[in-house]
Amino acid sequence: MAATVIAVVSRAAWPAVHGGAELFATRVAEELAKQGHRVLLVTASNVSPSAVEVVRIDGVCRWMPLLRSICVDWEAAKQVARIEPDVVLVNAYWSSATAWFLRRLGYRGRVALIIHDLGLIHRRDSAGKQFRLWLLARSASASDVVIVPTERVAMDVARVSLASPDRIRVLGFEGVEAPMKRVHVENGFFDVVQVARFSPNKGQHVLLKAVDILLRETEWARRELRVVLVGGLTDRGYYQRLAAEAAEINARAGRRLIELRPNVKDVDPYYRVADVCVAASLGEEGYGIAVEECMGYGKPVVATTLFKMLGRIDEETGYIVPPGDPAALADALRAVHDKPDEALKKASRGLEKVRQHSWDKVASRILNLLD
Q1: Do 132 and 202 fall within a single domain?
Q2: What single-letter DSSP state applies at residue 10?
């Protein structure tokens, strides 16, 4: 595509908000700018990514927090319609009205709605979620294409009738934030790291049950095992239950075996020290970027079958366990500890896989799909 003006609309942006959708939108904007396009990042976050012009939306609907996301969508649509870019990429989150508002304001350029994942919204078990789906469907119908990262998300989008299959485009991969080589800090512990927001669907409670099994059944776990849970604090009640369970395990172990690190600004130190990464999710996954980030540090990964279905991992590149099975998870962690050479071979194959993924390829593929 020849150099053009592109607006990337995302309510929040990286690193003001540490999330997969925010990282995706910001990195795509930066890479498009590097490719010679004029890029405007339209966001409510206070950020200044390199080579990208930021159109800041501030102060809308502060007196009505429940409607703030819709107000941000409306203000973003007004700003974009005023600028009249050639292409608009909308980061849809679990709902978005921006594309719909844009068409109602008379914008006639090309629009791509990017749905990173549907999260919990596809269950339709509340009026609020049904309203979000309704908004998302309006924006999907107003967009030229709906772009998703994986076939699994494409199936979710089609299942809830957001868009017909012929209008859905699958990226197949995302960029990876990692050094793309094995990096390891040795500290005398066997460090198990899970990077995921604190939410029941991420399965941190299953990992804690697996830790309990290892402590009862293995001598090395009582001496060497250390577990760090890192992620955004999105469900305070769940986080508090995890903290209480971790405190009980620590008391039985007689040391600080489990640590919870909410809302950290940089996950790099945790990946560096990890001997193995865990992705214990039970459901509602659209991609699994943390799995590939860990691979990008050359580390072994234990993940549930959800991530195999999403194409992030297989038996050649990691260890696969059923969701919600602490005994199987404990066995996989034991295998990594007891057979380190085999674990590192899997890690090496995982590293080679993710080396093929980059943000510049993602940005180029988005434009190709839109063409």
Answers
A1: no
A2: -
Residue 106 shares a structural domain with residue 214? no
Can you tell me the distance from the alpha carbon of 221 to that of 337, in angstroms, rounded to the nearest whole number? Answer: 10
Return the CATH number at 17. 3.40.50.2000
In the three-class reduction of DSSP (H, G, I as helix; E, B as strand; rest coil), residue 274 is classed as coil
- Helical H segments across the chain, by residue range: 20-34, 68-83, 98-104, 127-142, 151-159, 204-217, 219-224, 236-253, 268-273, 289-295, 305-309, 326-338, 340-354, 359-370
- CA quadruple 335, 338, 341, 347: dihedral, nearest 10: 40
For the whole model, what pTM was predicted?
A: 0.82
Residues contacting residue 119 through CB under 8 Å, at least 6 positions apart:
94, 284, 286
Per-chain mean pLDDT for the chain: 91
The burial of 341, by beta-carbon neighbours within 10 Å (0-12 exposed, 13-18 middle, 19 or more buried), is given as exposed
Residue 241 confidence (pLDDT) above 80: yes
- The per-residue pLDDT for 162 is 84
- Tens digits of per-residue pLDDT, 26-43? 999 999 999 999 999 999
Tokens for 177, please give them: 């934030």
CA distance 299 to 313: 13
* One domain, residues 97 and 208: no
The model's pLDDT over 51-67, given as tens digits with 9 standing for 90+, comes to 899 999 987 777 766 68
Contact 158, 185 (CB under 8 A): no
Which residues neighbour 303 within 8 Å (Cβ) at sequence distance 6 or greater? 278, 279, 280, 281, 288, 291, 312, 313, 318, 319, 320, 321
Domain that holds residue 63: 5-173+357-370
Rounded CA separation 117/122 (Å): 10
- Does 11 reside within a domain? yes
Same-domain pairing of 168 and 304: no
Quick check: 60 and 71 in contact, CB under 8 A? yes
pLDDT tens for residues 175-209? Answer: 898 999 999 999 999 999 999 999 999 999 999 99
